[in-house]
Amino acid sequence: MNNLQLDYFLSVANTRNLTRSAQELFVSPPAISKQISRLEKELGVHLFTRLGRGMELTTAGTHMHEFFSSQKAALELAIKNARDAEHIQSKKLTFGIIKSWSVYEPLRRFREFLLKPPYEAELSVRECDIDVIVSLLEAGEADVIICLGGEFSAIDRTEEVVTIPLIKTRRIFLFSARNPLAKKKDLVPSDFANMPLLSPTGPKHIAALNDIRSLCSSLGFLPRIVHMQYFSTLFGVGIDAGFTLIDELSEKLYNPAFASLELDETHTVNLAWLKSNKNPAIEALPYCVDMFNSWQSNRG
Asked: Of the candidates 23, 45, 71, which is a domain's last residue?
């Protein structure tokens, strides 16, 4: 057995539905079914019974679910403790950021600050898609993440997350430069009402999706949201299959394949970390906020 099989099994055990698990994991239902069948063959037991459109654990499946869940939790805790100890020993602060966000200059300044006493810590950066940015905290792969607020609807322990506002950034509709709207004068947000809104945010990110709907509603239309992975979203926009919502931090604004409409609306970008994080360099984060604010002011 492997981690993929266990992750698929635990997901279906929690959702009781192959389709729902497939949506959450961004794979197809047959892919999940195939891995679970392999796991059942290796274990020599049936883990699920089908009930209409749903799935129910068998008695053997219930025992294995309890065992695998406890083992996974114990492993994650051991990994987190080991990484916390390594961070303290190596004096390193790891940031998680969303791919394509152009925040190099303020992070460069913050890195120079961290290298000096009293912190004397190296800054490390992990990039990932927006729909999994919070998981870097849960997995102990980042001490701090730069993110939007809506992602936290996908985390199980929101009470353990500390957030502080970093900067406000303007929101933007990104669409294909080949779309006729790219040549339209006096373009307005409601011109996008008949186009699919491609979103890298999955169905489990309830707050983020509600934010998108609320924004579009305030602009005069209700969006038809299509869920996609991050790079699938950009590809979809590039081939004119729809438009997406980004902000002024995105490097994609400078890609000639895309056109954009800047909105009046803004949203807050946050720094977030777990209360349980013992990395002493966390104390330097207020200085990071100052550096981002200074950088944004100089950008005009």
From this structure: 71
Beta-ladder partners of 245: 173
Residue 154, pLDDT > 50, answer no
- Decide the pairing of beta strands 224-227 and 196-199: parallel
Cβ count near 128 (within 10 Å): 18
pLDDT band at 153 (very low <50, low <70, confident <90, very high): very low
Calculate the alpha carbon distances from 25 to 88, 203, 287, 300 in Å.
33, 11, 37, 40
Q: Which regions of 137-296 does DSSP assign to beta strands (E)?
A: 144-147, 161-176, 196-199, 224-227, 244-247, 258-274
Provide the pLDDT for residue 149: 65
> Where does 91-194 have alpha helices with state H?
104-114, 135-138
Amino acid at 200: P
User: Residue 26 — left, alpha, or beta (φ > 0 → left; ψ -120 to 50 → alpha)?
Assistant: left
For residue 109, CA distances in Å to 59, 90, 91, 159 come to 57, 20, 18, 31
Q: Which residue has the higher pLDDT, 201 or 33?
A: 33
Residue 110's domain spans which residues?
79-167+269-299
CB 36 within 8 A of CB 9: yes
Same domain, 224 and 258: yes
At residue 66's C-alpha, the angle toward residues 60 and 68, to 5°, is 95
CB–CB of 18/32 below 8 Å?
yes
Q: Does pLDDT of 196 surpass 70?
A: yes
32 & 92 share domain: no
CATH number at residue 66: 1.10.10.10
* Confidence class for position 139, pLDDT limits 50, 70, 90: confident
Residue 251 CB coordination number (10 Å): 12
Indicate if 15 and 61 belong to the same structural domain. Answer: yes
